[in-house]
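Q: what does this look like with zinc ion bound?
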Amino acid sequence: MKIYNTLSKKIEEFVPNVDGQVKMYTCGPTVYHYAHIGNLRTYIFEDVLEKGLKYLGYDVKRAMNITDVGHLTSDADTGEDKMLKGAQREGKTVYEIAEFYTEAFLNDMKDLNIKIPETIEKASDNIDVYIEMIEKMLADDYAYISNGNVYFDISKAKDYYQLSGKNPEDLMIGVRDTVEEDKAKRNPADFVLWFTLSKFENQAMKWDSPWGVGYPGWHIECSGINYKVFGEYLDIHCGGVDNIFPHHTNEIAQSEAFVGHKWCNYWCHGAYLNDETGKMSKSKGEFLTVSLLKSKGYSPIDYRFFCLNSHYRNPLTFTYESLDGARKALKRLKSKTLALKDEGNLDNESFTKYDELYKEALSNDLNTSSMITILYDVLKDESLNDKTKLELVKSFDKVLSLDLLKEEESVIDTDLEKMIQEKIVERKEAKKNKDFATADKIRDELLEQGIKLIDTREGTTYELI
Ligand code: AMP
Ligand code: ZN
């Protein structure tokens, strides 16, 4: 496998620490709201990476955290604590919010055929590990106590700027311009390991610690969970590009301070999904979730296919038009794969030839669009019999996970059916009120989504085109 490493800014041959065994960590969601489809683009990329490594013969162990305690890094953080804000918005406790949105996130993963990592750890379940790490960092002078909080001293970290490629001046400017200065810090970019005193005093989750009752900073949770699950070495760490700085930069600083040597060799980051107005966010306009797409009649796998047609390191803009395109293409593709008959003998030579091509595309920094092209080539190849095509499709789908050999899921059908029936009732109502413009609009919108309404004497039915 060749993969782009943010640490070296190069595509590198992937060599795990222990032969054939890959320890993989992916930063998990902050569970104060639903995940938007931008967040989920990152998890789709990580899923393809994990399955791709397995396809190439590696034994992958993957862990992910759930950020349920705060999201804070410094007393100079702007805005509010997201978890608390979520709890206030819904009149629930922080624990209830965390549980609800963790479940919703796992359901989104299942809908998108993303394999759930075998180890999932809640940030709030690992307080003892953070305390152990912070105590050692204090003893070794990587950390200091000031104004009630424990800070990490970034001037003690080796190569603090390597991952982000930033320089100290950039950070100084960032600190001065965007956030209020925290006078308790030695360096403006120092970050909090443990809070006991902060302006976010109404934190709901607090624990006893050697430095008083308080709560951990954001970055320590991933270093702590990594240490607990994998020990002193990690092979590959992933996230979205926004995680590069400060989150992953600070994870490296803490973990290497604690273990006393280089910790993780490969850092892989997925580019953003943007909407037409720019960066996707949870507070802006129509909040794009998997449920929203489902309510509009799309299958979550249409979205997965949309993502896989682009390279994970290229920013991608979401529009309904491009999702429609992906949906139509997937429908056509599935009509071909589902028509394959389990007949004839497997042609081993051709199977190996195409499988090698597929593995080459996969090993080329996860070139998913080439992998899909190879799938089309298989289906087009008239010299292959159905059995060989079928086995190749089955095999390729272990990584792509597009349900290429599965008839439409009944649960999606039910959602789609419900949505169409509601639209039919709405349109009937509009017609009754002589609002033909609305009635036509409903018909046209459904047609754009590949749903053709048919008016009969008995009522309106539909056909998927
Ligand atoms: P959060 O729940 O905010 O901690 O984010 C969860 C994951 O989604 C992180 O790995 C982020 O890097 C990633 N992420 C956030 N916004 C986007 C976006 N618009 N496109 C792709 N990934 C994103
Ligand atoms: Zn993390």
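The longest strand covers residues 59-66. Residues 27, 222, 247 surround zinc ion (ligand 2) (CB under 6 Å).
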